[in-house]
């Protein structure tokens, strides 16, 4: 345990694990860290926003899919030291399940968005494989 009492800058983010027909929605990151890698839709919580509101917004911006906030269930908070190369990030992850696959449309900082079979996921950026695993348990 560290004895350093210097305040740490912590960035607040939200991620979404969206399921449909035994698939999970992923976006391809457009810039570093992990440019070109697959990740969950998500991003920074804006000023005046809750993590739930950010999750809804980021899903729409990055994948073109709208899920009402009431349909998103919290998976948990992910705050492991070193989970992001840019510094300390804490992410609150949410999950929902759609009744059928819906065609995504990549936007914002995503260069692609697509559904991946849960049984054949690519390597994921950050700790997103752990977040998906937690969401599957629910």
TrEMBL record:
<feature type="domain" description="Nudix hydrolase">
    <location>
        <begin position="9"/>
        <end position="138"/>
    </location>
</feature>
<dbReference type="GO" id="GO:0016787">
    <property type="term" value="F:hydrolase activity"/>
</dbReference>
<dbReference type="InterPro" id="IPR020084">
    <property type="entry name" value="NUDIX_hydrolase_CS"/>
</dbReference>
<dbReference type="InterPro" id="IPR015797">
    <property type="entry name" value="NUDIX_hydrolase-like_dom_sf"/>
</dbReference>
<protein>
    <submittedName>
        <fullName>DNA hydrolase</fullName>
    </submittedName>
</protein>
<comment type="similarity">
    <text>Belongs to the Nudix hydrolase family.</text>
</comment>
<dbReference type="InterPro" id="IPR000086">
    <property type="entry name" value="NUDIX_hydrolase_dom"/>
</dbReference>
<keyword id="KW-0378">Hydrolase</keyword>
<dbReference type="InterPro" id="IPR020476">
    <property type="entry name" value="Nudix_hydrolase"/>
</dbReference>
<keyword id="KW-0614">Plasmid</keyword>
<dbReference type="Pfam" id="PF00293">
    <property type="entry name" value="NUDIX"/>
</dbReference>
């Amino acid at each position: 345990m560290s004895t350093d009492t210097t305040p740490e800058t912590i960035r607040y983010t939200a991620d979404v694990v969206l399921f449909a027909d035994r698939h999970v929605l992923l976006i391809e990151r457009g810039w570093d860290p992990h440019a070109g890698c697959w990740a969950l839709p998500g991003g920074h919580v804006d000023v005046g926003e809750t993590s739930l509101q950010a999750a809804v917004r980021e899903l729409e911006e990055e994948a073109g899919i709208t899920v009402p906030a009431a349909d998103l269930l919290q998976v948990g908070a992910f705050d492991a030291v070193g989970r992001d190369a840019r510094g300390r990030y804490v992410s609150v992850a949410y999950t929902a399940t759609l009744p059928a696959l819906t065609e995504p449309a990549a936007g914002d900082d995503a260069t692609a968005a697509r559904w991946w079979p849960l049984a054949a996921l690519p390597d994921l950026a950050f700790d997103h494989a752990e977040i998906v695993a937690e969401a599957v348990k629910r």
